[in-house]
Amino acid sequence: MAGSTPFRKRRSRRPGPTTGAAGGAASPTGDIAPAAVTGGPVGADAGRGRTASLAAAVGRGARKGGRGARAGLSAVADRIIANAPRIPVRDLATLRAQFPGLGPEELADKLVAGAAHGTSTVGAGVGAAAMLPVPPALPAELAAEIIGVAAVEFKLIAELHEVYGLRAPGTLGQRSMAYLGAWADERGIDVTAPLTINAALGVQMRRELRQRVLKRTFRSLPNVTPFMIGATVGAVMNRRDTKRLAEKVRKDLRARQIPWDAPTARP
Q: Which of 208, 204, 219, 214 is nearest to 69 (CA)?
């Protein structure tokens, strides 16, 4: 037709793919595709970005988990410290009246047997409570067991010091902190060395107490095994650990023991 462009001379409205200087495909707007700029496939960059984001998220979660674990240990340690002055400790006169005719070693054996029975009962009780475990309740059950065992063993350590004539000096609160330091270190107190008493009252003792709670937590994990297995395991393990702790403390105290016939030499 006159006045119209011949069919062979019409330009296509669809631009064909062109090759950029770096081998990347041009976009419909004429821009070079990202592959031409980066020199690599777009999917690889996206994958690296997702991996980096995932790694950062995992790192944040680990840091939050670490802070949560430290907070949990500190909470249990603070509860043990708060309970210590409230635990009734019998003095030597009361012990001798309740167990007449016994010498220091026989009396100490009685105390150890009673404490071992007490901690085994705590372990069996927590194991029975975990017969049908509810995961959110497990940390609370472990914390309750640790606090209960610590109370029984604290009383044992304090009364063993009474039996061997080595009561910690100071007020009730100071003696409680000293005996807690002995519990954390699994040793007897040297009342002739003031530095050991002062160290037990400071930050170092709290740090050691948190470490002791952490170790006790790992040892108590089998106690929450379901189907009453944890009750048996908890009873056996707690009884064994209490007797082991008592033997360590008694070994230290025997080396510095004050005879019963020398009451004026007692601190």
A: 214
> What number of other Cβ atoms are within 10 A of residue 205's Cβ?
21
Q: Which residue has the tokens 């009734």?
A: 88
Q: How far apart are CA 177 and CA 180, in angstroms?
A: 5
Other CB atoms within 10 A of residue 217 CB: 18
Query: Confidence class of residue 155 from pLDDT cuts 50, 70 and 90?
Result: very high
CB 165 within 8 A of CB 257: yes
Helix (H, G, I), strand (E, B) or coil at 206: helix
Tell me if 238 sits within 8 A of 123, measured CB to CB: yes
pLDDT higher than 90, residue 246? yes
> Are 168 and 191 contacting, i.e. CB atoms less than 8 angstroms apart?
yes
> Strand, helix or coil at 6?
coil
Sign of CA dihedral 23, 27, 32, 37: negative
Report how far residue 85's alpha carbon sits from residue 15's, in angstroms, rounded to the nearest whole number.
87
Q: Which residues of 107-120 are buried (b: 16+ CB within 10 A; e: fewer)?
A: bbeebbeebbebbb
User: Per DSSP, which regions of 12-60 are E strands?
Assistant: none
For 170-211, the pLDDT digits (tens) are 889 889 988 998 998 888 887 776 555 555 556 677 788 888
Sequence-ordered list of residues with C-beta below 8 angstroms from that of 216, at least 6 positions apart, any chain: 146, 149, 150
Helices (H) and strands (E) in the chain, counts: 9, 0
> Any idea how long the chain is?
267
As a whole number of Å, the CA-based R_g of the chain is: 35
Per the CB < 8 A criterion, the answer to whether 165 and 93 are in contact is no
Q: Quote the CA–CA distance of 108 and 246 in Å, as a whole number.
A: 9
